[in-house]
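Here is one chain, start to finish.
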Amino acid sequence: MAGIADTYGVRVVTIRTGGIPESLPKDIPGRETIADSIAAASLLGHAATLEDVGQVAAFVAVDDEPRYHLDIETDDVAAETARLVALGAVEFRRWLGCQILRAPGGHLLCVIPLHSDPESFQRLARVWE
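Its structure:
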């Protein structure tokens, strides 16, 4: 997790965990091994929780309009964009193969093309319909 505020008040924030064990499917083979490796690789010796990430995201939101953004990695940018638009997001702009949307609450969502290891992505990806 990192944040930078320049003299103009612009914040650039990346929230990146090594993984969140509670988001792993309960029946995934090797779940405990995966969870242990996530914790072992972290600087604090324990894995982040969904609550941890939510608290950091809320903390870094700016004081006026809500403007934190969330990256959503997908193997189909067009389909994920269409799903989010159907849920109320508005297309904002495109940048380097990413589709930037504005959620109904004003926050930015960046739908980014697959950049993770494809095998890991297939194993860990979630599908929302």
